[in-house]
Amino acid sequence: MSDLPPKYGQPISLDAAKKVMTAAEAEAARNQWPMVIAIVDSTGHLVILHRMDHAQYGSSKIAPLKAETALDFRRSTKVFEDGIAAGGQGVRLVTMPNVLALEGGLPILQNGEVIGAIGVSGMNSSQDAQVARAGIAALG
């Protein structure tokens, strides 16, 4: 078993990104959480940015940064949040450029490769992650 992160794959298609977005929005709406949801492709380009009614304005900047962090490092942004929370050497993560260490950013995998990432912002970090996971689950 390899500890290497998954390889980057072809960029997520617009149709696939729409499926992820629709499922993520449905999860947020079901819980009455006003969210901002961002999806980037495997090249780091924004595919969709969706701000639900009444979502806080700052989340329009945070959601894409969560997606970009998850894509750039091919892992959940929770890894960085946990590292900082643990203290000690984990605090060094705050010196890394372009890292948003808040849960709610996840890579999107297809056939074991990273095709993009989703970032969600608007509630607490665990709720953001719940919405992101619901979106990814739509791809099967």
What does this structure look like?
The protein is of the alpha+beta class. It has one domain (14-137): 2-Layer Sandwich (Beta-Lactamase), CATH 3.30.450.150. Helix content is 39%, strand content 19%. It contains four helices and four strands, in the order H-E-E-H-H-E-E-H. The chain has helices at 14-30, 59-73, 78-86, 125-137, and strands at 36-41, 46-51, 105-110, 113-121. Helix 1 (14-30) crosses helix 4. The radius of gyration is 14 Å and the shape is globular.
Features:
140 residues; alpha+beta; Beta-Lactamase; four-stranded antiparallel beta sheet; 19% strand
Structural class of the helices, strands and pairings? alpha+beta
- Please report the total strand number as a whole number: 4
Number of helices: 4
Number of domains: 1
What is the third-level CATH name, the topology?
Beta-Lactamase
Low-pLDDT windows of residues: none
Q: Under the CATH scheme, which class?
A: Alpha Beta
- Report the sheet with the most strands, covering strand number, pairing sense and barrel closure: 4 strands, antiparallel
CATH homologous superfamily descriptor: Haem-degrading domain
Share of helix, binned: 25-40%
> What average pLDDT do the residues reach?
95
Cα-based radius of gyration, to the nearest Å: 14 Å
CATH architecture: 2-Layer Sandwich
> Which sequence of strands runs across the widest sheet?
2-1-4-3
Helix and strand succession? HEEHHEEH
The shape, in one word, is globular
In terms of DSSP E residues, the strand content is 15-25%
What gap, in angstroms, lies between the N and C termini?
A: 23 Å
